[in-house]
Specification:
Radius of gyration: 15 Å
Shape: globular
Largest sheet: 3 strands, antiparallel
Strand order of the largest sheet: 3-4-5
Order of helices and strands: HEEHHHEEE
Low-confidence stretches: 88-102
Number of strands: 5
Length: 102
């Protein structure tokens, strides 16, 4: 699903989003379905986003086992004052507080 929404076969999924309230990454295909579709669809097809959103959300829940997993690979590396998120192609630096997994 990530390859379809991101338009690429490697690298980070464009649909993965940070949720400040839950302090975790969430699949945008489930939590922000219409916004993800607007970014993924070509300009001429964006008017279909409201019609396709319920289908994408339903498929997303099914394809990632209703929230139990996602095949996106992110590695969080901590350094002073920032959190670095690395995947196979790119590195993104975020100033957000690091996630603690104790």
């Amino acid at each position: 699903m990530g390859a379809l929404l991101s338009g690429r076969r490697s690298g980070s999924c464009a649909a993965v989003q940070w949720d400040d309230t839950l302090r975790q990454y969430r699949c945008g295909a489930i939590v922000s379905t219409q916004a993800v579709l607007l970014n993924a669809l070509p300009q001429v097809a964006r008017g279909l986003a409201p019609l396709l959103a319920p289908l994408l959300r339903r498929l997303g829940l099914r394809w990632i086992s209703e929230g139990t997993g996602c095949d996106s690979y992110l590695e969080v590396m901590r350094s002073a004052g920032s959190t670095t998120i690395a995947d196979s192609d790119t590195t993104v630096v975020s100033r957000a507080d690091p996630i603690r997994h104790d």
